[in-house]
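Per-residue structure
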Amino acid sequence: MPRASIGPAIENGFYYDFSRPEPFRPEDLEKIEARMREIVDRDEKITREVWTRDDAVAFFKSIGEFYKAEIIESIPAGEDVSIYRQGNWLDLCRGPHLPSTGKLGKAFKLTKLAGAYWRGDSRNEMLQRIYGTVWATDADLKAYLTMIEEAEKRDHRKIGREMDLYHFQEEAQGSVFWHAKGFTIYNQLEAYIRRRLNSSGYVEVKTPQLMASKFWEASGHWGKYRENMFVVPDEVPGTEEEGPILTGKGDLMALKPMNCPAHIQIFNQGIKSYRDLPIRMAEFGCCHRNEAHGALHGLMRVRQMTQDDAHIFCTEEQIQSETEHFVNLLYAVYQDMGFADVVIKLATRPEKFGGTIERWNAAEKALGDALRATGHDFIIAEGEGAFYAPKLEFHLKDAIGRSWQVGTLQLDYVLPERLDATYVTEDGTRKYAVMLHRAILGTLERFIGILIESSAGKLPMWLAPVQVVMTTITSDADAYATEAAEALRAAGIRVELDIRNEKINYKVREHSVGKVPVIFVAGKREAEERTVSIRRLGSQEQKVQSLDDAIKALVAECTPPDLIPASARAAVAAE
């Protein structure tokens, strides 16, 4: 018999992890679904029972469910445990549940199998995970499965290989090897957001990667976030073959998982006055987080990441205006990126938190009031704040309806107090600054992954790593194609020259798979007339245009959205 471990609800479904000697096979899912339908037909009553912690541990051990027992043992002694009974099946769950199995209906589907280490730790047993989803109606289920099928086609890992953007390998778990084309996207995105920040009154800084553990102890991260940090001993490794590499006597340091404590160190250099505030301090800081191997997922979940990170130091009176300033900037960026559907959540105090409840209550109220003043609605995400601050989460809907949590704004009273970030008030006294932690894209890696999946690799022209391929039908046009490519490059367009001795259909197909948005084709006639035949990605139509006119049109099309003159934007909007 398989042993069950944990089976939580997740967005759009659920999963359950099992320890089982033989592997589940895809055909097993159909058999399990058939049994699930039988249980729905039986309409078994579901009841909640409250057990003592120790009784629950003893029971689950007695039936061989040792993973369940381990979960319950992690609950503090003396606390009761919520157990749900359904026929002969008992399981640990907070609830609530439906009153009976018949109320569930049959609009469900087991979707896939995966492996997962127990508690995400590669030193533990590899369990078998079964994913599933359930909906109110068959129509809802069908729509969701269609979206999943489309999502698989858009998987950024698959498209990334096809476009030659990046790769991962075991020797650097969770870190991206950016290829030239992928790094072009990265650089274009970073340059865009940097221009946005510069024009919005931010100053850019750079802080160390590696800092002493006492620094993180002072900030509070060492006690509450250390398990997610890469800890490094501050000593010279031994070089003797027979001796130890490390003595274990060196002081401990850590790679930074975030930039905020380091930004306070810059703020604290010199005396700050209320007249200096707000200070908007930005950094494209490379951070490291010790994610479990089993949790890593392409660009979406990495260990090394770069954030479009910034911290705003302000007075309490400036919270509302700074929140409005940030939200307006964020919406402008998302509009440029093609995301119009944004849901805002206010994430409140988690179980593990820094500071006092009174401070948290004040921070949550201030952030909510400031957001209301911007005119945007929001929903409450109970207990999902960072350990030091409540936060606003900005969730984007992509082209196939999936939601991605990207931007954040966190209002923090705790860290400035812990690290003594003060300013001189108008009456000459000192007061702790308010700290707003904020990001718009989140991490560049993950945002690029989202862009790739939302666009199915057909990135907007200004972000496309190769904006146009200049290719030939015959070798008679090679010299002209080379000259045309140089003219495109001189105009600032990212161009690739393809004068290989291959059939034109082969070359067009290859560049289409690579998601090149525009292909210029030249034969003997085009070379004589100084024209190009233009093919657009996803279109069978061809257009012949003079080289000069084609380049002029492409220059406008390849311009990043923030560099397009306001008059041109207005004209496009009117169309």
The longest strand covers residues 304-314.
